Amino acid sequence: MGASVGVGALVVGTSLLLVFALAVQTLDNRLDASLEAIDDAGDPLPSFRIDDTTLWEGAVLTININNNGSGYVDGTLVATGTGSGFSGTFTVDSAGGIETVTITSRGNYSSPPTITVDPSGQSGVSVTASLSSDIGNHIYGNLTNTGTVTLPLREVWLFLDGGTSQTPTNLGSAYTPSISSTNWYPGETIFLDWSEDGPTTYERISLTAGGMTAAHTLA
Description:
Blueprint: H1 2-41, E1 48-67, E2 75-80, E3 83-92, E4 98-109, E5 114-117, E6 130-145, E7 151-152, E8 157-160, E9 169-170, E10 183-184, E11 189-195, E12 204-209, E13 212-217
Antiparallel strand pairs: 1-6, 2-3, 2-5, 3-4, 6-11, 7-10, 8-9, 8-12, 12-13
């Protein structure tokens, strides 16, 4: 009888210790969560704005070298078509064939313009080069970090028309070619230079980071 009572008391005591340990662990978890919530509540929220944005639906996105020709020297490219604003340069190889092209201004055209070499300074051309172009959506804009939070560019996302017709695009994915940093610092204005060659036109651009969103109508 005495042994049974002793065993029962031991079982009850062990159970109470287990319940107590679980209760202490639960309190610790709740305390950690509460402290984390208080800590997060003290962090400042990001703040930013889209200063201006322009959509060019017929921007020259690429120049294709169909025949690089020969006898050229480094020079400039010109475009002929319905629209305006294109400019570009090219370099040549040892035979004077067009080797690389660089778009310095994309312009805006209703259909792909004809791209040719500016004849100024070209006197020894033996084989005429053949070039072609592709056009599509290109967005220019200025974005300013108006808050006190430094934002990693990889954590900032762009949407067009609220994301209904286009997937979000990461701002750090080489869409700010003049920015060598991976961060967007307080007070800094960065230039958006983004070829979004989508299937349709757009009316609105949105920028989101850290739970905050800014929007602007595309001009």
